[in-house]
Amino acid sequence: MKTFLGIIHILLCIALSGVVLLQQRKQGGFSGIFGGGTQADMGGSQWQRFTGLTKITVVLTGLFMVTSIILVLY
């Protein structure tokens, strides 16, 4: 079981790296990280404004974290 989870974890890592590299670069630099938005921007429709690659990145990141925790605990 641990071997199977390790293989899944490696495949998730490769897929996540590929999806991150496929995304377009934003020209804002660090300005979007530290401020630049208000609480009004974080409404319930945030998920619908994400692009397809961003949604895939969020899902793969979540799965990667779950498999990481499972591998540590198992």
UniProtKB/TrEMBL annotation:
It is a multi-pass membrane protein. This is Protein-export membrane protein SecG. The chain crosses the membrane at residues 52-73. It comes from bioreactor metagenome. InterPro entries: SecG (IPR004692). It is found in: Membrane. Its main location: membrane. The keyword Protein transport applies. GO terms for molecular function: protein-transporting ATPase activity. Keywords: Membrane, Protein transport, Translocation, Transmembrane, Transmembrane helix, Transport. Coiled coil: none annotated.
